[in-house]
Amino acid sequence: MQRPLEHESSISLLIAEHSRMGCSLMESALRRCRNISVAGSVIESSEFQDTYRATNPDVCVISSGLKDGATAGFKAVRELHEIDKAFNAVMLLESADRSLVLEAFRSGARGIFSRDDPFEILPKCIQRVFEGQVWANSQQLKFLIESLAENATPVITDSRGTTLLSSREVSLVQLVAEGRTNRDISRELHLSEHTVRNYLFRIFNKLGVSTRLELAVYALNQRDINSSPPQRND
């Protein structure tokens, strides 16, 4: 059982917005949340990594557009995610457009928040991402599932290129990513639902995820990594 928020330690937050005014407005609005404290704020991607290291925040809320460009936030998240895989980012999008949502997930965001969403939801989003969960609404999850279903099954490997899952487990991951239930999967693969649950438990442990949504995000990122053309050494 989770403890009430008032008894939990404060969540330190780093804000990256497109202007100082934007940072100030968000910080003022979040002051009402007793379990969230703002550790710092930046407006350019060039400031982001240094400020992150200096403040060591629990969660970052990063606008897709910063002062140095309309997509600079995505770049900042990608670069830091390559250095720190445990980095917790909530992407603040101008709209819940499909391409923006998918780009946020690909960049390494664990939470999606649109400026069209009620601001009152943002503290809950921050809390869930801090707890290690992925935050996305049903429409954003649908975009993710559609993207995975439209493409080939990802090859899931570690940093050395070693395959992490068996062919059976890969098939199960693809079905989960398509939004299938355990019952659907058991019928598709001719397995009992108990066996499907055991497979999922092993897959979660191997990949370090804990929910079906996190597994879908992981699969999306792996597919993009494996579909990227190799770098040329000129």
Description:
The protein folds into two domains: about 5-135, Rossmann fold (3-Layer(aba) Sandwich); about 145-225, Winged helix-like DNA-binding domain superfamily/Winged helix DNA-binding domain (Arc Repressor Mutant, subunit A), CATH 1.10.10. Residues about 1-5 and about 230-234 have low confidence and may be disordered. It starts with 10 loop residues before the first strand and ends in a 7-residue tail after the last helix. It has about 230 residues and is α/β, with parallel strands linked by helices. It has helices at about 20-30, 45-55, 70-85, 100-105, 120-130, 140-150, 165-175, 180-190, 195-205, 210-225, and strands at about 10-15, 35-40, 60-65, 90-95, 110-115. α2 (about 45-55) crosses α3 and α6 (about 140-150) crosses α10. It is elongated, with a radius of gyration of 19 Å. The protein has a five-stranded parallel sheet, with helices on both faces. It is built from ten helices and five strands.
